[in-house]
TrEMBL record:
Gene Ontology terms for molecular function: ATP binding; dihydrofolate synthase activity; metal ion binding; tetrahydrofolylpolyglutamate synthase activity
The organism of origin for this protein: Novosphingobium fuchskuhlense
GO CC terms, sorted: cytoplasm
Keyword annotations: ATP-binding, Ligase, Magnesium, Metal-binding, Nucleotide-binding
SUPFAM superfamilies: MurD-like peptide ligases, catalytic domain, MurD-like peptide ligases, peptide-binding domain
Domain of life: Bacteria
Family, similarity comment: Belongs to the folylpolyglutamate synthase family.
Record protein name field: Bifunctional folylpolyglutamate synthase/dihydrofolate synthase
Amino acid sequence: MRDFAISENPRVQAQLDRLGALSLPQGRLGLDTVRDICARLGNPQRRLPPVFHVAGTNGKGSTCAYLRAILEAQGLVVHTATKPHLVRYNERIRVAGKLISDGSLADLLERVLDASADLGPSFFEVTTVATFLAFAETPADACVIETGLGGRLDATNVLENPAVCGIATLGIDHEAFLLVPEAGTPADPLARIAFEKASIAKPGAPLVVQSYAESPLASVLATASHIGAPVALRGRDWWAETGETIAYRDARGTLSLPLPTLAGSHQADNAALSVAMLRHQNIVPVSPEAMAEGIKAARWPARLQRLGAGPLTALAGQRTVWLDGGHNPDAGQAIARHFADSAPLHLVMGMLTSKDPSAILRPLEGKLASVSIVPAPGHEAHSPADFAPFTALPVRSFANVAEALAALPAEGDVLIAGSLYLAGDVLKRNDEAPD
């Protein structure tokens, strides 16, 4: 799988062009290549500050945002690795709290690409090792690292001694990669995905998880038991109830924590998972006060983000414009819950052909005033005809988001959704690139 990135810096762009030419060799899955690259560069994954490793179908990026904000509220220096980027590749690597500089990024990518040229590495293997190098060579108090696809075979899974691992929500996504039949793995699709995610667990390191349905939960527990990782399960080892606050409790006591600033009721669950991860590890002390401050301070772009004033939103007049990069059924349900009591929305949507158009449209049935389809920049996207079976509304097509916004009726708020690639383009064009 390729990812695409551009940079205004010619040195960075030269390395991104090299990355873009890489592909995953046919039939090669596993961690051997990324381990070989790490070994050639001094095994940087073994020289990191304490690692908080997070997997999940949805919510893992937000959980990482809460972890980072809480740790920084404690006064700690934090490295953060998240994916994908929205506008600039640099967003993937935050070194000591700041996006990696163009000069450092170009140097690191060049080092890894040169060292691994004869190994036929993939995009994700190179970028992961570059991230580890950045984190190993700059002092910090903690690392927050998000997995990419799955967990078991994700390049970040060469990490050996994390302080704690966590799994956010589980759902069906990336089926072509995570549901390939393989001997000895669960047959049930959600249990198989649970197995892939839970395989980031490491012997002796706590694995903190949300509550799941019976089949995926059994898969998580069996996988952790096989690895030798103690499990902290929501509803058994820790609890979090949401009202006007997050009422959290575990064996260490109770906490009353504020609700997140991030929109969406599901964000309280992501915040609670981050708190549980911090409470079930003993390497990095964090106070309840820092947890409360971090939950309120956390930001995570393109996840039910209310866009600010800018060139794109000006086309929508006085209406509110929301942006969400969600593209699978769980994301669709979360979006629908957030807008359950709102007036009908104008949906502007672009979605990759590898995704299911019904994932967003079905949960929003009865909540939409109009449906406008736009391309997902730089990628193959569904046509308007692909969306028509899932809505009774006319499906209109536009060349871009600006045209779609300008053509909307005078009333009703707007939701732009369906793809993180589309979300990144929107943020760039509205002058709201993540910093």
